[in-house]
Amino acid sequence: MNKNELNIENYKIKTAPPTAYYVSEFITKNEEESILSSIYAAPKPKWTQLSNRRLQNWGGIPHNKGMIAESIPSWLDVYLEQIHNLNVMGGNRPNHVLVNEYLPRQGIMAHLDGSLFYPTITTISVGSHTVLKFSEPAVDDADNRNPIFSFLLEPRSLLILQDELFNNYLHCIEELSEDILDDSVVNLECCSNKYIPGARLKRDTRISLTIRHVPKTTAFKINIGNK
Q1: Which ranges carry the Fe2OG dioxygenase domain (predicted)?
Q2: Which among 128, 113, 124, 132 has a CA at the least distance from the CA of 211?
Q3: Phi/psi at 156 (nearest 5 deg)?
């Protein structure tokens, strides 16, 4: 794939609310292996351990008082430049990468990405697939809404979320060891492989690179303990 000539409008998922783009095989297998090698070569203090996954922040740690901008290593910055060249962030260059590691049976609860970021999120998946599920926000605490559609994210793929999908739809990854490709998965025609309806895909360890633009940055140390 020649990324310099990639017209992102050709990759819109037309079977979902606005707006999502899905590019299968956005990176090569060699790039995937290089990314994995670099991530796991990071020093242990770079990892933050959560109850259901672990993560790395590159570029700084977003905060409502501003992100203290940090340099991003060249092995990772090349992908920020590729995303920038797609012109999906209003001319803003991405400046932050959240790396999440998901083992089988690990996921993330339904959430919105929030106001700290330019309203576009781009995610490169490496190592394994997952299924990202979407639901409308609950009206109140008692209204626990079930997912209404989902995307299959293949290894080496790129997903871009904007507009209603960014602002109005919660997204989650369920804690499963395998995924069933049922009728709720609406992007199968965009995928690189041809999947049989009802197929079961076993998960392996997946790394996601969520590449975003944080508008509010600072070069100075912030006292985040003060409200």
Answers
A1: 93-215
A2: 124
A3: 80, 5
The model's confidence at residue 183, banded by pLDDT at 50, 70 and 90, is very high
Strand partners, 48: 55
- Token representation of residue 123: 């995610």
Element (H, E) at 210: strand 206-212
3-state secondary structure of 166: helix
Q: Which tokens sit at 161?
A: 């979320």
Q: 59 phi and psi, to 5 degrees?
A: 100, -10
Token pair 């197929």 in the structure block, residue: 199
Q: Which two tokens stand for residue 48?
A: 């933050």
Q: Write down the mean pLDDT value for the chain.
A: 92
Q: Give the pLDDT confidence score for residue 140 in this predicted structure.
A: 61
The tens digit of pLDDT for each residue in 142-180 reads 456 688 999 999 999 999 999 999 999 999 999 999 999
Six token digits for residue 30:
């060699």
Of 210, 154, 158, 207, whose CA–CA distance to 37 is shortest? 207
pLDDT in tens, 7-49: 999 999 999 999 999 999 999 999 999 999 999 999 999 999 9
Identify the helix (H) or strand (E) that includes residue 38.
helix 29-40
- Of 84, 97, 71, 55, which is closest to residue 214 (Cα–Cα)? 97
Task: Find where tokens 């998960």 sit.
Answer: 203
